[in-house]
Design goal:
The protein contains 19 helices and 13 strands. With 501 residues, it is of the alpha+beta class.
C-alpha cells in the first residue's frame, strides 16, 4: 500500500508538472498586452472566471486597462474592452482570427455533432432564405398559430379560462416560448393534445440540460452529472431523430432545407439527429429567458407597460377572445412597433451577455483606436465581452444599470442609432446577437417570436406580480458569457385572459 501511494504521488506530481508547463514558461514579449497568469499554474484565473466572469473582468480591466491576456485552464485569452477598437477583430477578412474552428470544437463536445466545412455557409444561407423576408412572414404565421395552441389549448379559449392563474414568470416565459418554437420548427401531428404533452416533457429535459450547460462547457461536472448529460444527449438525439420528425406535418422549411443539404452531402442519419439537437438549442435556448427579462421590466415599470399597451392597441385594435377562439393578430404589425422594438433592445442590452471568441491563427498586430498596437500571439484566443465594454458603458448608455424603455427611440419616435464614446459615433452600441461572422443568423426570427409573445400577453391577458414590491432578481453569475442571462431565482406572477367585450 505504501509503495502504491508513492507511485501514485509521483505520477500526480508528474502530471501537474506537465500541465503547468504553459503557465510556468510563458513570458511577456515586447508589444504584447499585459500578461496575468494568475495564482495557480495551468489553471491560472479559471476558478475566479467561472465563479463570476463580470466581476473578474472588471478587476482585470481596472488593473491592466482595455487590453490584457489571462491564463484560463491552460489557454491564454486576450480580452479587448475598448469598443472603438473592435473593428479590426470583427472585420478581419483574411481569417487570421478564426471563429469557425472554435465553434466546431464546441458543438462536437456539447451536441455530439461533427461539423462539415460547408455547414457555416449552409446555415447562414438557409437562415437568410427562411428566417428573413417572405420566409420569416410565413414562419411568423405558424408561430402565431402555435402560440395559440400552447397558451390557449387545442380548442382555443375555454369559457372557464377567465380565472387567475399563477406561475413563476421565468418558468412561464421559457416554457411557453420553448414549446411554441419547438412545435413550429420541428412539426406537429394531428393529435394536438399529444403534441403539447410531448413538448412539455421535452422542455423538462431541456431545462435539465440547460442547468448543467455552463459547467458542461467548462468540463467541471461531477461523474454522475457527466452520465446524466450523456443520457440527455441520447434522449434528444432520439426525440429529434430525422426518422421520427419527418413523419410530422409542418416541419419548417428552414429545418427541411438544411437536412436536405446534409443528406446531399451523405451525412449519416445519426449525425443529422445530432444536428437537429444543435439547432433546437440554437433556436430555443435564449428566447424564453430574453422574454422573461422583457416582461419582468414591463411589470416593474408602469410607464413602459402603458406605452407598449397603447402601441399594441394602435396596431391591433381592442382585442378580446370569444369562447373557442384563437388569437387573431396579423404578424405584419411587428414591423410597426417602434416602442416595443426599443423595449426589446433595452431588455437585451441588460440581459444578454454573449462572449465573442476568435482563435488567433497567426501572430496578429492589433491596432487600437488610441493608436497603440499590441501583438496577439498565434494559438491564443481573443475575446470580446460586450456586456461590460458596450452595454454597461455609462458613456455610451448613461445610467447603464437602469431600464429605460425609450433608450433606443429618438424624440420623433424613430429608432435611435447614434451612440457615442469619446465623441465618436460607435458602430457597435448594443451587441446581444454578437457581430461579424459570429452574428446570430436566426436573430430576426428570434426577435419576432419574442415580440409576438409580448404583444399577445399585453393585449389578451391581464398580468401582474403576486408581490408588487418584489425586486427584479439579480443575474445568476454562472450564466455570464452564455448568451442571454438567467435570473438567480424566479418571481411569482399571475395572469388571466381579458373578458370578452
Amino acid at each position: 500500500m505504501v509503495l502504491w501511494g508513492l507511485v501514485l504521488g509521483a505520477l500526480l506530481v508528474a502530471v501537474l508538472g506537465f500541465l503547468s508547463l504553459p503557465g510556468l514558461f510563458r513570458q511577456h514579449r515586447p508589444q504584447e498586452p499585459p500578461l496575468d497568469k494568475g495564482p495557480v499554474p495551468w489553471l491560472g484565473h479559471a476558478m475566479a472566471f467561472r465563479i463570476n466572469m463580470v466581476e473578474f473582468l472588471r478587476r482585470m480591466q481596472a488593473k491592466h486597462g482595455d487590453v490584457f491576456t489571462v491564463l484560463l485552464g491552460g489557454q491564454y485569452f486576450t480580452f479587448v474592452m475598448d469598443p472603438l477598437s473592435f473593428g479590426p477583430i470583427l472585420k478581419d477578412t483574411q481569417r487570421r482570427l478564426d471563429f469557425i474552428e472554435y465553434a466546431k470544437e464546441l458543438v462536437l463536445k456539447v451536441f455530439g455533432y461533427k461539423p462539415l466545412a460547408e455547414d457555416y455557409h449552409m446555415i447562414h444561407s438557409t437562415s437568410t432564405k427562411h428566417l428573413m423576408g417572405g420566409g420569416l412572414e410565413e414562419l411568423n404565421e405558424v408561430m402565431l398559430d402555435t402560440l395559440s395552441l400552447v397558451m390557449l389549448g387545442p380548442k382555443g379559449r375555454r369559457p372557464s379560462a377567465s380565472g387567475w392563474r399563477e406561475d413563476g414568470l421565468f418558468h412561464f416565459c421559457y416554457n411557453t416560448l420553448f414549446k411554441a418554437g419547438y412545435l413550429s420548427l420541428f412539426g406537429r401531428t394531428p393529435d394536438a393534445a399529444q403534441d403539447l404533452l410531448e413538448a412539455e416533457e421535452l422542455f423538462v429535459e431541456f431545462r435539465r440540460f440547460d442547468v448543467l450547460f455552463p459547467r458542461f462547457v467548462y468540463s467541471v461536472l461531477w461523474p454522475r452529472e457527466w452520465r446524466h448529460v450523456g443520457r440527455l444527449q441520447r434522449l434528444f438525439h432520439k426525440v429529434l431523430s430525422v426518422r421520427h420528425n419527418l413523419q410530422k406535418e409542418g416541419v419548417s422549411r428552414w429545418i427541411l432545407d438544411m437536412l436536405q443539404q446534409l443528406q446531399a452531402l451523405e451525412v449519416a442519419p445519426a449525425m443529422q439527429d445530432k444536428f437537429n439537437f444543435m439547432m433546437l438549442w440554437a433556436s430555443q435556448g435564449n428566447t424564453g429567458p430574453a422574454s422573461f427579462w422583457a416582461l419582468m421590466f414591463l411589470l416593474k415599470h408602469p410607464d413602459a407597460m402603458r406605452a407598449v399597451k397603447e402601441e399594441a392597441t394602435k396596431v391591433l385594435g381592442k382585442a378580446s377572445l370569444e369562447a373557442t377562439q384563437s388569437f387573431c393578430c396579423d404578424p405584419g404589425v411587428l414591423k410597426h412597433t417602434p416602442v416595443l422594438d426599443s423595449v426589446m433592445e433595452e431588455s437585451l442590452r441588460l440581459g444578454a451577455s454573449p462572449t465573442l471568441l476568435r482563435a488567433v491563427q497567426v501572430d496578429f498586430n492589433l491596432k487600437m483606436a488610441s493608436g497603440e498596437e499590441y501583438l496577439l500571439r498565434r494559438g491564443d484566443k481573443v475575446a470580446i465581452f460586450p456586456y461590460l465594454s458596450v452595454q454597461m458603458d455609462p458613456e455610451i448608455h448613461p445610467e447603464p444599470t437602469k431600464f429605460k424603455y425609450d433608450r433606443f427611440l429618438n424624440p420623433d419616435g424613430s429608432r435611435k442609432v447614434d451612440f457615442r464614446k469619446r465623441g465618436k459615433k460607435i458602430p457597435y452600441y448594443n451587441m446581444p446577437w454578437g457581430a461579424g461572422v459570429s452574428m446570430c443568423p436566426g436573430r430576426h426570427f428570434a426577435l419576432s417570436e419574442m415580440k409576438l409573445f409580448i404583444l399577445l400577453m399585453v393585449t389578451y391577458f391581464e398580468v401582474e406580480m403576486v408581490d408588487p414590491d418584489a425586486p427584479v432578481p439579480p443575474v445568476d453569475p454562472r450564466r455570464w458569457g452564455f448568451g442571454t442571462t438567467q435570473p438567480s431565482h424566479d418571481v411569482r406572477f399571475r395572469y388571466r385572459l381579458r373578458s370578452a367585450e
